[in-house]
Amino acid sequence: MFKKIAIMIIICFVPTSVFAALAMGNKANFATAWPTIEYETSYSVSVGVHDERPYIIDGQKSPTYVGTMRSQWGVPWNMNTQSDKPLSDDIASAIVSGFMRVGIKASAVPLLFSDDQNNAIEKLKKLRAKRIVIITLNEWKIDILRSAGFFIYATIRVYDEEGNELANSSVSHEKVGSGDGSVMSTDYAARSYLNMLLNDEKIKTALGGSSVFVVKEIGRDDRFIAYNNGTVLDTKTNLMWANRDSGANINWKSAKNYCASYRSGGYTDWRTPTKDELIGLYDSSKSKASACDSNQNISVITKLINISCSYLWASDITHSTFRADTVATINFNDGKLYWYNWSSGADYFRVLPVRSAAIKKPAISPQTDLETKEKSSDSSEYAQKLRELKKLKDEGFLTDKEYEQKRKAVVDGL
Predict the structure, then answer these.
(1) Does 153 or 34 have the greater pLDDT score?
(2) DSSP secondary structure string, 156-188?
């Protein structure tokens, strides 16, 4: 006789609300993906971004959708904009910031995915700008598992103030790198693709962009000098700062990527500042309301640098055997140094890129150099040779070119 053995299988069902909680915080901030504009123009610009991603149009995804984050088992969770605004609004904001950082007057109008191209143009014409820029998104999506993917297909069109198309261009991840969309940083990828769109030669010409961007001083505040390329120079420390922080909540890892890929002024050596460099920007006597928290004030030494929230990340990090690594932050509300876990949340945290500015020495022209050597040798045999060469030239035995060549050879021997 066989004994019956009862086997009880316990299946644990995890409420969907728990999984939803795991997915909370999966946000992406493209409002700070400011492109680096490589030209200047006297034209004013109105900007609109038209979201025509098919899964937005048919209602499968929300206009705030930016992509997918997957668990280690591949379970997908939607990622949305950090601002909770439509992705198109965040990208338009980033483009306007890019224009304004180089002194180009720009403003944006929100476009609905239900707008057709004619409606979009009519909305932007109401701003009465000299040029209209519309970027159409057929794809803009990130996909993160163990590595990051960024997938894009976007078209830019420039119109005159009457709505006549002047130029267009497009970008796609399929035409960049390996073509599979893999990237080291989605933040950097977003800025790079916007750079490609806005700095295309046809687009630059349609916007009346000059070939050479001339850096100009636009303001002074004691030892600080602001320039029209979005930079501020501290003449005391010889540090060059971005003229504003990242503008939105950001964690430390993203802050490092943000600074490393920052390109304002055309410089490629931006970095995260040290705690001591940040403390040098704090001045308790200069207080203003915080843009991110009405209950807090921030104190910045110069009005030329816009710090929008209390905490700024620094590059300093501690390593400990007994506890998690911590990263330095400076609180611009009280000027104190605090240490936070590097993986802590991003609320109230910003980052302000910095670079070390090279000290420029006056250039000495070859002619000035020759004259300096000549004056130092008036009483020498070299002076006599130079006088003889001058006489030969004056008497017509040497051409001007021959005289300069022989003169340089004599001086180079000094």
Answers:
(1) 153
(2) EEEEETTS-EEEEEEEEGGGSTTSS-EES-HHH
